[in-house]
Specification:
The chain is mostly helical. 70% of the residues lie in helices and 0% in strands. Helix 1 (3-20) packs antiparallel against helix 2. It binds zinc ion.
């Protein structure tokens, strides 16, 4: 799923954990559930428009990603205080795989193109596991443009839930 979707789920998890659990369980459970949420979200992301590779020649792909990055940025800015913990751990799998492991691996491959270094450290391998075990029955629609409607629906639903939970923005 997209960054904004992970962000909103991280926010909801943190609100619930901090409302119903006491220290230090609220922190532990926020981290744990936010992490797990990424596995489930990415596992079902095959039903949303989610091409594994960049479609740079495709206007639709470009515009959709402009919108989604803008929304992600806004959600980040809105919720970073005080929901940074939930958002961080809802995205930590992407941060590790895409911004830490992948660049290191690319460096290794420059020296040795055959290098298999790091393959087993990808956290998205557990996403594949969850998908194979639990969501194998879902239709694969990640190249279907109408898949954005599912993601938009999920984003709106999550936003409404946050509204109901009374996320107090700009908490002091
Ligand atoms: Zn991911």
């Amino acid at each position: 799923m997209e960054l904004i979707t992970h962000n909103l789920i991280g926010v909801i998890i943190q609100i619930l954990c901090f409302t119903f659990l006491l220290f230090p369980l609220n922190i532990v459970c926020t981290i744990l559930f936010a992490y797990i949420s990424h596995l489930f979200c990415d596992a079902i992301s095959i039903i949303t428009y989610h091409t594994p590779d960049k479609q740079e020649g495709d206007k639709f792909w470009i515009i959709w990603h402009y919108i989604i990055y803008l929304l992600s940025f806004i959600s980040f800015f809105f919720f970073i205080i005080p929901y940074w913990l939930g958002m961080l751990f809802a995205n930590i799998i992407d941060i590790w795989d895409w911004f830490i492991l992948r660049p290191i691996q690319n460096k290794k491959k420059e020296k040795n193109p055959e290098s298999k270094w790091g393959e087993k450290y990808y956290l998205h391998r557990s996403v594949d596991w969850v998908r194979d075990k639990l969501f194998f029955w879902l239709p694969v629609r990640n190249y279907k443009k109408s898949g954005i409607l599912i993601e938009i629906f999920i984003i709106i639903t999550l936003s409404i839930i946050i509204g109901f939970l009374g996320a107090s923005l700009f908490i002091a």
